């Protein structure tokens, strides 16, 4: 009698499942090549830019560095959109925010160099009569360099008591790391949605539009921007092959979209 071997094979990739405090699914890994689709069998097979996409979607290519960068450092993404991102009604200059800056050169009169250690007390949350969302609640503490030189960094705090309603933000200065200390952040990006809790952090790459909602009503925390480079994991040295933050501990959103015909406003930092 012939022997029979029983077995099985995976039917899908590994996803982080939703929880009571986080309703979204994620793929895991740091610096990986991810692919996901909100509607099955939508992504083109064996090519990036077919003559015609399924559902007449628009192909867009977003890159985070020069086209001639080494392959290992070439960070990019293909997006398949319902509408192209270049469709808008024009651009206008907004009033300057005196609490926010990204230029830390001596020519900036608002920048002061101090040899003394500086300590900030907790900033006051906006009053109930104020409507302050994530973008309007950012205040700069320190930094160096300038984003136009593609060198330096900036450190901010944020205090918010309102969600960004019909409004998105795009940081063109650099990658932004957001660390909530109080209250969760529901971050809607062009790549999908992320729920960020205190003790966690989220990184939004340069040039990615995103919107922040406050499921807990208010939130405060820190922001860190890096100009001209990207965040990487440090070498472990004597710790060996595993320890501290492992690549598998990082979560990436899966594709999502909204059907919304109402006008939105977009804000960019330049």
Automatic annotation (TrEMBL):
Keywords annotated in UniProt: Dioxygenase, Iron, Metal-binding, Oxidoreductase
Q: Which cofactor does it need?
A: Fe cation
Q: Which GO terms describe its biological process?
A: L-phenylalanine catabolic process; tyrosine metabolic process
The EC number(s) given in the record are 1.13.11.5
> Origin, by domain of life?
Eukaryota
Q: Name one GO cellular component term.
A: cytoplasm
Domain Homogentisate 1,2-dioxygenase N-terminal residues, every copy: 25-262
Q: Name one Pfam family in it.
A: HgmA_N
Q: Name one GO molecular function term.
A: homogentisate 1,2-dioxygenase activity
> Pathway, per Swiss-Prot/TrEMBL?
Amino-acid degradation; L-phenylalanine degradation; acetoacetate and fumarate from L-phenylalanine: step 4/6
Q: Which family does it belong to?
A: Belongs to the homogentisate dioxygenase family.
UniProt protein name = homogentisate 1,2-dioxygenase
């Amino acid at each position: 009698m012939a022997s029979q071997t029983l077995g099985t094979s995976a039917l899908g990739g590994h996803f982080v499942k939703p929880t009571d405090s986080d309703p979204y699914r994620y793929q895991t890994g740091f610096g990986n090549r991810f692919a996901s689709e909100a509607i099955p069998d939508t992504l083109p097979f064996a090519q990036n830019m077919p003559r015609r996409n399924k559902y007449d979607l628009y192909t867009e290519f977003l890159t985070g560095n020069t086209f001639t960068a080494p392959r290992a450092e070439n960070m990019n993404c293909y997006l398949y959109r319902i509408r192209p991102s270049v469709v808008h009604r024009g651009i206008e200059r907004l009033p300057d925010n005196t609490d926010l800056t990204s230029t830390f050169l001596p020519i900036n009169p608002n920048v002061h160099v101090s040899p003394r250690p500086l300590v900030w007390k907790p900033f006051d949350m906006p009053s109930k009569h104020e409507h302050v969302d994530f973008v309007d609640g950012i205040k700069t503490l320190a930094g160096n360099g300038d984003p136009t030189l593609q060198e330096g960094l900036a450190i901010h705090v944020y205090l918010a008591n309102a969600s960004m309603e019909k409004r998105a933000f795009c940081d063109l200065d650099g990658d932004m790391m957001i660390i909530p200390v109080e209250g969760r952040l529901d971050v809607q990006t062009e790549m999908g949605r992320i729920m960020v809790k205190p003790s966690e952090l989220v990184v939004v790459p340069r040039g990615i539009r995103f919107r922040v909602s406050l499921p807990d009503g208010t939130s405060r925390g820190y922001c860190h921007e890096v100009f001209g480079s990207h965040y990487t994991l440090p070498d472990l040295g004597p710790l060996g092959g595993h320890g501290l933050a492992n690549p598998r501990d990082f979560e990436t959103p899966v594709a999502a979209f909204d059907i919304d015909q109402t006008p939105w406003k977009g804000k960019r930092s330049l």
